[in-house]
């Protein structure tokens, strides 16, 4: 994007340069008396040693312009720093050959290879999309994970976040989804764009090794802004990743799965910058525009009419203190179409993935399952599993008060159903890839432990086809 070998005089022909700045504060640079500059305009900052650093305009007014410097302002001084406004936003050279590569948060190659020669140069902030141009998501994505496919179905073009907590295996689940995701009935795999913000080196290495071992690394582009990288870079990481995803989906016609972790680190960086700017804080110190900023990222997903490709998002966030009412999960839940919620107690009992059955949901599930998409009995089966498992939770709470020996025979049957459901339906291997048919059959096997008169949400035909067949087989055994 910027050729450092070009002499300063040549660069001056294409932009205005100012010598001396007013103030430095963390990664922010303040400069007065400039010409009219644009919001998010790209900036070159040159310190007294001649080192060039990139930044972008964060705020502008008649009196002062605030620039966020991606690599920080360490080593800069007020009178000798030169600032040059480029008159254009931060752009990224995008090409299909970026799959199989590793980049930093700004889209620069960090895998030892050369910088990719882009087919196009796109604004990382994205382009506005007319809502009427969107296609309604309805294609079922088979992840091979029963608790998602059966009860919280992922749909092509959907944004379905994972609400997790520190120490829970959300990264393992995300890698498994990336390896196994398929569109049922179509011979198509997903290209994966992975964005990591503020993660540790071992987490980044886990993803790279996981993709290498499964042979899908050539189909993955990784954007890594690690924990020891400048925190300001985390704000550009998801935008760079989504820019490549948009090119792959709408110019190359690929189905793209975007995984972003950890959105909590992204929001922390946003709060840090907001504090440095002296903005009035909102809930828990986060800026008042946290909702619109997250929506700006999450809404860069979906399908467009007339385009073959699609973007499906799986953002991952760790809930501070496992609090689902915290502003980050709270606002994310409003913007996205559901959530997959992890439960620490299930993880403690060795259940993987520890997905909590009741607070998890997929709002688009109803449009992507059923006859002709998964199986005719899928909607009723999922509803019955939710209802039965909800009753299991009530029975367990009752047993903790009065003791299991005081429960009724029917309550004991529900307890047995709950154990079977968690052990054989929810829990599975970290490399186990189940078909949707196997997932639904496991659901019926769990329900067969309950009396048929308790199953009010399935039809008599479904009971005859699935429930009684399993019950008869168990009786013969």
Automatic annotation (TrEMBL):
Residue ranges annotated for the ATP synthase A/B type C-terminal domain, each copy included: 367-467
One term of GO molecular function: ATP binding
Ranges of residues in domain ATPase F1/V1/A1 complex alpha/beta subunit nucleotide-binding: 144-362
Gene3D superfamilies: 3.40.50.12240
Coiled coil (UniProt feature): none
Start and end residues of each ATPase F1/V1/A1 complex alpha/beta subunit N-terminal domain: 25-87
UniProt-listed InterPro entries: ATP-synt_VA_C, ATPase_F1/V1/A1_a/bsu_N, ATPase_F1/V1/A1_a/bsu_nucl-bd, P-loop_NTPase, V-ATPase_su_B/beta
Biological process according to GO: proton motive force-driven plasma membrane ATP synthesis
Keywords linked to the UniProt accession: ATP synthesis, Hydrogen ion transport, Ion transport, Transport
Protein task: Produces ATP from ADP in the presence of a proton gradient across the membrane. The V-type beta chain is a regulatory subunit.
UniProt similarity note: Belongs to the ATPase alpha/beta chains family.
Name by which UniProt lists this protein: V-type ATP synthase beta chain
The organism of origin for this protein: Oceanispirochaeta crateris
Lineage, uppermost ranks: Bacteria, Pseudomonadati, Spirochaetota, Spirochaetia, Spirochaetales
Record gene name: atpB
């Amino acid at each position: 994007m910027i050729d450092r070998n070009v002499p300063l005089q040549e660069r001056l022909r294409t932009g205005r340069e100012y010598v001396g700045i007013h103030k430095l504060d963390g990664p922010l640079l303040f400069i007065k008396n400039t010409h009219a500059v644009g919001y998010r305009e790209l900036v070159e900052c040159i310190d007294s040693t001649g080192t060039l650093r990139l930044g972008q305009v964060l705020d502008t007014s008649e009196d002062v312009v605030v620039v966020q410097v991606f690599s920080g302002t360490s080593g800069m001084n007020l009178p000798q720093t030169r600032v040059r406004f480029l008159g254009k936003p931060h752009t990224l050279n995008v090409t299909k050959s970026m799959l199989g590569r590793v980049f930093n948060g700004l889209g620069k190659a960090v895998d030892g290879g050369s910088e990719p020669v882009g087919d196009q140069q796109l604004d990382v902030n994205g382009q506005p999309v007319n809502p009427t141009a969107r296609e309604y998501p309805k294609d079922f994505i088979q992840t091979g994970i029963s608790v998602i496919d059966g009860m919280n179905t992922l749909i092509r073009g959907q944004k379905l976040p994972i609400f997790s907590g520190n120490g829970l295996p959300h990264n393992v689940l995300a890698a498994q989804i990336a390896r196994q995701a398929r569109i049922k009935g179509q011979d198509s795999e997903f290209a994966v764009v992975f964005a990591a913000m503020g993660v540790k080196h071992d987490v980044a290495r886990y993803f790279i090794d996981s993709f290498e071992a499964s042979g899908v690394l050539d189909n993955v582009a990784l954007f890594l802004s690690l924990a020891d990288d400048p925190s300001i870079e985390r704000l550009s990481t998801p935008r760079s990743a989504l820019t490549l995803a948009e090119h792959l989906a709408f110019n190359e016609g690929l189905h793209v799965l975007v995984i972003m972790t950890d959105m909590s680190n992204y929001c922390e960086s946003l709060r840090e910058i907001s504090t440095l700017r002296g903005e009035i804080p909102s809930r828990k110190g986060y800026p008042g525009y946290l909702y619109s900023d997250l929506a700006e990222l999450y809404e860069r997903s979906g399908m467009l009419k007339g385009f073959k490709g699609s973007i499906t998002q799986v953002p991952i966030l760790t809930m501070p203190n496992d609090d689902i009412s915290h502003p980050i999960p709270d606002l994310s839940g409003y913007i996205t179409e559901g959530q997959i919620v992890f439960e620490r107690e299930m993880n403690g009992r060795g259940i993987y993935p520890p997905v909590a059955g009741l607070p998890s949901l997929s709002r688009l599930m109803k449009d992507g399952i059923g006859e002709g998409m998964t199986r005719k009995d899928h909607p009723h089966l999922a509803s019955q599993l939710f209802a039965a498992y909800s009753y299991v939770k009530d029975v367990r709470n009752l047993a903790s008060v009065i003791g299991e020996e005081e429960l009724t025979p029917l309550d004991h049957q529900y307890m047995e159903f709950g154990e079977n459901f968690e052990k054989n339906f929810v829990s599975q291997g970290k490399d186990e890839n189940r078909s949707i048919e196997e997932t639904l059959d496991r659901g019926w096997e769990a329900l067969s432990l309950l009396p048929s008169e308790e199953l009010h949400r399935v039809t008599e035909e479904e009971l005859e086809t699935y429930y009684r067949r399993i019950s008869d087989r168990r009786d013969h055994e």
